[in-house]
Amino acid sequence: MLRTVLAAALAVIAAPAFANDSVAELGTGGLILSRSDAVAMQSEDLFISPEKVTVDYVFRNNTDKDVSSIVAFPMPDIEGDPNEMPAIPEAQSDNFLGFEVTIDGVDAKPQLEQKALALGIDITADLKAQNVPLYPFGDAAKAALAKLPKDVTKDWEDRGIIIEDTADNGSGMQSSYVPFWQLRSTYWWRSTFPANKEVHVSHRYKPSVGGTSSVSFFSDGQFQSPQYDNYKTRYCMDETFDNAVRKAAKANPDGYPKYYESRIAYILTTGGNWASGNIGNFKLAIDKGSPKNLVSFCGDNVKKVGPTTFEVTAKDFYPERNIDILLLEPSDNNGGDAN
Asked: Does residue 222 belong to any structural domain of this protein?
């Protein structure tokens, strides 16, 4: 349910890790138009799976004049913190979600706007002056930091741009300076919406899939609060889902359900600023991957349309909450097709 909103609104959220063995998912929103008072969204077709997110839009300019607009796709903000472990699909690339877009079937070549922040202060020029890449998780940034003059290193440490980190790199404990800044990235391009015509825009990317090596809300033979209560609200887990978790726990001698937990966060409550206000025709499809996986998410009139696929459709749709998807993947063969 990718949304079109004012360019000033960057709808990205980073969900926190729940435990030391967790990887945090990065919530991602959708396209932004700098001007949309004349442009209506006729339809939106959204597909979400652990491997990919694809969206097909049909926009229509219902006026008698062409409308020019800047269209943008804000990437999730990422924090260069060695104590955090966000799920990044392509960890060595500025395009860390593998974002691609086409307009009326033709590949677009969006520009990438990036800004580095430390304590809310723009430090982009500081990094560029020392030839340090803005992307904090790549090997190139760490290598560049190792070459900094001592006075710059001291200054950056004092300003919260970098921190000293000690870790075992395979040859014993070693200390080095690592990025501590935040990266804000946005892909953007100029687009024209011809008078009284449709424009088809499609884009795709790899989602940030968070995970935990076990079921974080169930242990010692029972559901554990407050985590279970939080999940119940966030993922709308029903009795069928709960029973499948209980069944898996009973099948295991130690009383723990043998599942890996995966999470996908999708931002859609950023408001509708296109001309019609709502999405004319909306379709959401969620694919859980394997038939043995359990899936839970909030949605009205959800239909199972395939062995692994669930669908929601609506007319004149306006979203009231974000999409949060919980997947439980069997760590052995005790899983069943419950949802």
From this structure: yes
